[in-house]
Amino acid sequence: MKPMVAKFATDGSHEPSGTPLWHYALDVYARPGVADELLRLQDHHHADVLWLLTALWLAERGAPLEIEQRYQPEYEAWRKTMILPVREQRRLCDKDKTPGLYELLKRAELEAEKEGLRILYEVFADQASGEADILSCLMHCLPDECQCSRLLDVVYPQDRATQSR
Question: Angle at CA 160, nearest 5°, toward 162 and 137?
Fold first, then answer.
């Protein structure tokens, strides 16, 4: 999912065509240490970064993520047929030998992720807000409380430091 980092390195603006979830994901991903932590969770714990970002977005809106909502067939099909194969091709590409192809694949992966977040946004856009426990939302995406807490420490460093006092 490194393309989001590249996006921030070259362009701090938001694309007008993105959903509120897309803009939220870009903002969170740009926070210090968040990209590295999300990629660590992706690579070492097989976490789906887009689901983690969606869970954070829902919790911030006060909309709970229930376990039965976690499976979204349209998103899962998109992830399996587009996001993962493009990511695999980007990772296989030698960015030193074929930098143009590597950059093209990186942009394609970013567009595939953007579409994935659009699909998830469409599912949850009208979900009523109320009270949502952020840790519970994340636990439906990554069932390791220590890893979820570590992510929260990175995403919300000031809030978490204040809570521990």
Answer: 140
Task: State the Cα–Cα distance between residues 75 and 117, nearest whole angstrom.
Answer: 8
Residue pointed to by tokens 């009523």: 128
State both tokens at 141.
């995406």
Q: Is-above-0.85 flag for pTM?
A: yes
Nearest to 113 by CA among 82, 134, 90: 82
CA distance 158 to 103: 35
Digit-coded pLDDT (tens) for 101-117: 999 999 999 999 999 99
Sign of CA dihedral 33, 36, 38, 41: negative
Which tokens sit at 27? 């903002």
Count other Cβ atoms within 10 Å, centred on residue 20.
12
The closest alpha carbon to 107, from 97, 118, 99, 119, belongs to 99
The domain locations on the chain are 3-163
